[in-house]
Amino acid sequence: MNIMLFHSTHGLRPAVREAADRLRAAGHEVWTPDLFEGRTFDSVEEGMAFKDGIGKDELLRRAVLAAAPYSERGLVYAGFSLGASIAQTLALGDDKARGLLLLHGTSDVAPNARVDELPVQLHVAEPDPFETDDWLSAWYLQMRRAGADVEVHRYAGAGHVYTDPELPDYDAEAAEATWRVALGFLETL
C-alpha cells in the first residue's frame, strides 16, 4: 500500500518517522511530508501557534503538493491529530484514495463530500479533549452520510497523542493495540 502520513502539531518528530518505519516493515511504501519545514514542538500550544501562523490554506496547499506526485497510485491517507485532519480532507477530495487511517484526530466533513465506501479507521483516546463524544458522534454520522465505511477504536485512559513515546500522553499498551489493529486494517485494503 502507498501511504501518505502527516505529522501532528508537534511537527515531524521521531515518533512519526518510527511509525513510518513500522509501516514500511509491514511492506508499505510511506511518505512523511514535513509541513512545518523542520520545526518541531514539545507542547501542543507552541505547535498550534506555529500552525496558526502558517494558516490552514497554506498547510493544505503544502499537503496537496506533497501528495500530488503519488495520488495516481491510489494513496492511503494517514495522520496524527492535526495530520489526521489534513489526511481526512485530502482523502475526501481524492477519488483514487484507497483508505484513511486517522490517529488522534478528525476534521469537519464538507456537506457535499462524497466517497464510494472509502475504508476509514479512527483511533482516539477516551476521553479526548480535542475529540469529544458529541463531536465524534456527529463526525461519524457525517462520514457515513458521505459514503465512508467507518470503524472507530477508543482507548480508555490514554492521552490525546498516546502513540508518541516522547510526549506525556504516551500509553504503551494503547499504542501497541492501535498499531496492531491499524496494520490489520491496512492489510485489508
Pairing-aware structural class of the strands and helices? Answer: alpha/beta
What's the overall average pLDDT, rounded? 97
Strand-residue proportion: 15-25%
Helix content: 40-55%
Question: What is the count of β-strands?
Answer: 6
Write structural notes for this entry.
This protein is α/β, with parallel strands linked by helices and 189 residues long. 40% of the residues lie in helices and 19% in strands. Strands 2-1-3-4-5-6 form a six-stranded parallel β-sheet, with helices on both faces. It starts with a strand and ends with a helix.
List keywords for this structure.
189 residues; alpha/beta; six-stranded parallel sheet; 6 helices
SSE topology:
Blueprint: E1 2-6, H1 14-25, E2 29-31, H2 44-54, H3 56-67, E3 75-80, H4 82-92, E4 99-103, E5 119-126, H5 133-146, E6 149-156, H6 172-187
Parallel strand pairs: 1-2, 1-3, 3-4, 4-5, 5-6
Helix pairs in contact: 3-4
